[in-house]
Amino acid sequence: MSSSMYHQWWHAIARAMAPPPKPDDHCSQSAQSKPPSPSPDKQYLLNLPPELRNRIYEYALFHSTCISFPNWLITEPGLLRCNRQIREETYSMFWSLNTFHFGDTKTAEIGLTGLHAKKIVALRSVRACSADVAVQSRDWLKYVDFRLRGLWAACEEKGLAPDVIKMPLKVTGEEEVQWVSLEEADDFEIGVGGFVVRKKDLMPH
């Protein structure tokens, strides 16, 4: 990448992530309704090749950790609301690149059922409750299966894939909590002592 293109790339990132300017309170109504056309030097992002724009979008929209929602209201980043063309190019990217985390299954159900079908289809990873509530017991395994079926059924008509929503399991012999989908939950069973184990670990060697 040339130094000039590199400069344009980072300049576009900065502009894309910056908050929109507040309207001047002293502007007239006609001035606000007819904003001046942006000069060419302010359209770096849309002038870049599509492959570079996609790299910028991914950089701006991807979160390395889960995006947590304290309630059912799911908000989009400002980048998706700043321009019609940019919104069309990034609409599914935000929903497909990230993992969304709800504090409990009820909040997850309200939040997910309120999403437009296009967003539901784009989703790739949702965690429906906190890992802290997972316990090693038969009741919890049954609850995980029950709630995953209910959450998927609530969004199935909108096109939600059955492997998108996951819930936590504490598994015997594994330090980290396992996040499992509806299909993956079938890989676990209750072993001796009432603890959750993988079915393959119950099979005779």
TrEMBL record:
InterPro entries: AN11006-like. It comes from the Eukaryota. Residues 19-43 are annotated as: Disordered. PANTHER family: F-BOX DOMAIN-CONTAINING PROTEIN (PTHR42085:SF1). This is Uncharacterized protein. It comes from Passalora fulva.
